[in-house]
């Protein structure tokens, strides 16, 4: 989470106040650093190349800071951005790092390929206040010895490959304010010993395989501002003690197996700004007291079993709310609630809420950036409403009964994703894809409608990544200008009346990983140029009039035979061999 990263950066900066070095670094600390350097077999960051000379405290050893009076290393900070895939370190953590007896900050983050286990010698780093080893490839169990670091305030091991249970010894870290073990493969319950961690401000255990109930003692963490237990296997109800966390700002419990109702005491979470309980099994009514949360700006209760009626929201209810998601509950709303239509919301998500009738008229359409009203029973023409949503970026209205001609649709300039699939939309694609199409438009989903006409030529200014126009009445040929869609990753033209040959230029789409041309009237050969697309994960040429040898090379000859069946005379692996006259 971005705010957690910001907290770590802030705390790190505060611990790296620059002072001019005076004492030369000790031979023991220099040897420990060089042992770590030797354990790194490849360093494309170039950081360790600065580790030369006798004095590791002269300011030239990148990432190393020392106590100017003693020459002892106090901070070792090696950080790399995950957005730079070519910059990494490969190797292991040398046990010699445990000899840095005055080390207070150990921050080895984002190296990507430092693997192996955390050495047990780290238990000797008894002056350590910050241990951050996130976004590497470390594995094995989280070592129990980390519980022997009495002054540790920040522990982050997120984004590695740790497995096994969370060691109970971590409950001995009574000074701990930040614990982040997210994005590993940890299992089992939260240890009972964690009840001692009363100074915790941030607890992030997300994206693991942890199970059991959320322990009642979490309510004792009165300083907690961030609680993220999402994407685990936690079960049972939300303990009542959680509602004692008056300083809690961000609670993310989505994608678990949590059950039961929410308590009216939820209004006690007076500092709460973001609440995500989606993809659980919560039931009952959404408590009316939730509307009293003055600081709540993001509310996601989607994919649960909440039922009608929704709470009445007065003029002062939800004063800070910007984003709401109530999708896929047991709600039979009929119409969009008036408070949702009238509030200054930027994100509205009411998919699968049994909305009926004409498209709702919003009081503040210019504020909406994301709208999802899919899987409802909305009817009529939405083109005029969408034109008024001048800030709109993402719109999903699939699986309704909307009926209008594409020629009437005037999308706001900033729309990046449009999903009108499974409706009754008519007209031609040329109304949507032409020289005036916004460069911001990246995804178009129009499958399962009644769109006709030809596939238009594609201009070089288009930045489409997804074009899904399957199950329509589109005819004509695939234009050779398809090669202009250089960003395209997914192309689905299946179940139409498209004819002619597959253009060679299709092989220029190097980002393409999904291609479905099935159930059309295509003829000729599958072009060899498609062998150039190494990213391809799925293809289907099924049920056309194609003939000749399937290009023999990866990836085309490793897809299942079903991708090529029911054509005129295709042959060659994965189908039976060609006759000599057909090659």
From TrEMBL:
Residues 1-22 form the signal peptide. Gene3D superfamilies: Ribonuclease Inhibitor. Residues 27-67 form the Leucine-rich repeat-containing N-terminal plant-type domain. InterPro entries: Leu-rich_rpt, Leu-rich_rpt_typical-subtyp, LRR_dom_sf, LRR_N_plant-typ, RLP29. It holds the Pfam family LRR_8. Keywords: Leucine-rich repeat, Membrane, Repeat, Signal, Transmembrane, Transmembrane helix. This is Leucine-rich repeat-containing N-terminal plant-type domain-containing protein. It comes from Brassica campestris. The lineage of its organism: Eukaryota, Viridiplantae, Streptophyta, Embryophyta, Tracheophyta.
């Amino acid at each position: 989470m971005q705010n957690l990263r910001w907290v770590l950066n802030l705390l790190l900066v505060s611990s790296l106040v620059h002072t001019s070095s005076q004492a030369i670094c000790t031979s023991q600390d220099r040897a420990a650093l060089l042992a770590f350097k030797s354990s790194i077999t490849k360093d494309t960051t170039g950081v360790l190349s600065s580790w030369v000379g006798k004095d590791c405290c002269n300011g030239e050893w990148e990432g190393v800071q020392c106590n100017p009076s003693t020459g002892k290393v106090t901070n070792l900070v090696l950080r790399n951005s995950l957005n730079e895939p070519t910059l990494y370190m490969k190797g292991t953590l040398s046990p010699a790092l445990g000899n840095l007896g005055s080390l207070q900050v150990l921050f080895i983050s984002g190296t990507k390929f430092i693997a192996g286990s955390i050495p047990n010698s780290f238990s000797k780093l008894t002056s350590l206040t910050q241990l951050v080893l996130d976004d590497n490839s470390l594995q094995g169990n989280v070592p129990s010895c980390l519980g022997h670091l009495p002054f540790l305030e920040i522990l982050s091991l997120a984004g590695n490959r740790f497995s096994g249970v969370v060691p109970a010894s971590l409950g001995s870290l009574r000074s701990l304010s930040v614990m982040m073990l997210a994005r590993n493969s940890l299992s089992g319950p939260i240890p009972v010993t964690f009840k001692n961690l009363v100074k915790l401000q941030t607890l992030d255990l997300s994206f693991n395989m942890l199970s059991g109930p959320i322990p009642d003692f979490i309510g004792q963490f009165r300083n907690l501002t961030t609680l993220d237990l999402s994407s685990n296997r936690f079960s049972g109800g939300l303990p009542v003690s959680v509602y004692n966390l008056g300083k809690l700002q961000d609670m993310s419990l989505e994608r678990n197996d949590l059950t039961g109702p929410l308590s009216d005491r939820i209004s006690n979470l007076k500092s709460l700004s973001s609440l995500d309980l989606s993809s659980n099994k919560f039931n009952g009514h959404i408590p009316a007291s939730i509307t009293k949360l003055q600081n709540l700006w993001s509310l996601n209760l989607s994919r649960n079993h909440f039922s009608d009626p929704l709470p009445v929201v007065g003029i002062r209810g939800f004063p800070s709310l910007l984003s709401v998601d109530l999708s896929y509950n047991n709600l039979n709303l009929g119409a969009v609630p008036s408070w949702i239509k009238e509030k200054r919301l930027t994100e509205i998500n009411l998919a699968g809420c049994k909305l009926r009738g004409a498209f709702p008229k919003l009081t503040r359409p210019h504020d909406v950036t994301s709208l999802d009203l899919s899987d409802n029973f909305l009817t009529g023409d939405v083109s005029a409403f969408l034109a008024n949503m001048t800030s709109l970026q993402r719109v999903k209205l699939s699986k309704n009964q909307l009926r209008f001609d594409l020629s009437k649709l005037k999308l706001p300039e900033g729309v990046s994703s449009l999903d009108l699939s499974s409706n009754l939309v008519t007209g031609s694609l040329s109304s949507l894809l032409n020289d005036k199409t916004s460069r911001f438009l990246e995804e178009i989903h129009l499958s399962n409608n009644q769109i006709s006409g030809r596939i238009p030529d594609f201009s070089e200014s288009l930045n489409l990544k997804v074009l899904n126009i399957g199950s329509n009445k589109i005819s004509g040929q695939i234009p050779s200008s398809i090669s202009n869609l250089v960003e395209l990753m997914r192309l689905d033209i299946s179940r139409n009346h498209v004819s002619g040959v597959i253009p060679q230029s299709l092989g220029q789409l190097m980002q393409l990983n999904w291609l479905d041309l099935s159930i059309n009237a295509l003829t000729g050969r599958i072009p060899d140029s498609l062998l150039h697309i190494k990213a391809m994960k799925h293809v289907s040429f099924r049920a056309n009039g194609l003939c000749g040898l399937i290009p023999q090379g990866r990836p085309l000859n490793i897809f299942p035979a079903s991708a090529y069946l029911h054509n005129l005379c295709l042959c060659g692996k994965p189908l039976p061999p060609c006759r000599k006259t057909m090659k």
